[in-house]
Every structure is written in C-alpha cells, then in structure tokens.
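testing teh design pipeline on a random one, pls ignore if ur not involved
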C-alpha cells in the first residue's frame, strides 16, 4: 500500500529544494491523502507551460488527434522520463529528470504489475505546474 509520512517528506525536502534552487524555480512540497508526494511549481525561470504546449501540439499532430490547449496550469507526468522535453529543450528535460529523481529518493520502489491488477509502490508522485487558483508565473526571458 502506498504511504508517505511527514517524516519521509522532510527527509526528501532538501534534495527537492536543491533542484528547485539550481534551476531558479519556486515551489512547495506536500502530501495528499498520505499516499502522494506532491511538488507544486509556482513559478520560475523555465517556460514549462510553453514547452508543454509545444510538446502537446507536436504529439497531437503526429498522432492525428485534435490539439488541446494548455492554459496557465497543468499536471506533469512524474512517471515517464521527459525525453519529449529533452528533444525540445534540454534544460527543461534535465529539470524534470532531476526533480523526479529527488522526489523518489532512495526508498522509492514500484513493484506494480498491471497485467494482474496488482499495484504496489512506496508512494505516488505528482508534479503540478501552477494551480487553478494561482497560475504558473514564468519569470525568464
């Protein structure tokens, strides 16, 4: 059963804060429902919204799907290595990779098997870029 305590969050926080500082980002760290480690990115020097829109447009064009508009906030995929972002902007790709690595720390594991409907992970990960009530603020050029 996925579970993360406040103590574990405090152990992971220095590494997460270091990644945020290294990339000029501002964010908060929290826990949802005692099972999900959440990083809420409030703003920073990386154009995460613009990159997400470009990656989304490219993917939908390639797949022949209708394009969706990414507004002032979105939830990044914390379980897939951001190779699409690395192709577009290496710094954004490295940021997501470093952030996910810091969020996982040394105790995270995933022994899930979707074929047998068996889900067993240390805890879930969530990365929010902005929120509905407070959009992401891009401060770079």
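output:
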């Amino acid at each position: 059963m996925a579970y993360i305590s406040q103590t574990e969050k405090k152990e992971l926080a220095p590494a997460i804060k270091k990644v945020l500082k290294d990339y000029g980002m501002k964010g908060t760290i929290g826990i949802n429902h005692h099972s999900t480690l959440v990083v809420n990115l409030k703003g920073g020097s990386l154009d995460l919204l613009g990159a997400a829109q470009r990656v989304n447009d490219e993917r939908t064009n390639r797949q022949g799907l209708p394009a969706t508009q990414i507004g002032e906030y979105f939830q990044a995929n914390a379980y897939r290595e951001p190779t699409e972002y690395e192709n577009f902007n290496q710094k954004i790709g490295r940021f997501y990779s470093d952030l996910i690595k810091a969020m996982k720390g040394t105790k995270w594991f995933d022994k899930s098997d979707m074929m047998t409907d068996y889900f067993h992970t240390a805890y879930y990960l969530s990365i929010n870029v902005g929120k509905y009530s407070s959009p992401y603020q891009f401060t770079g050029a």
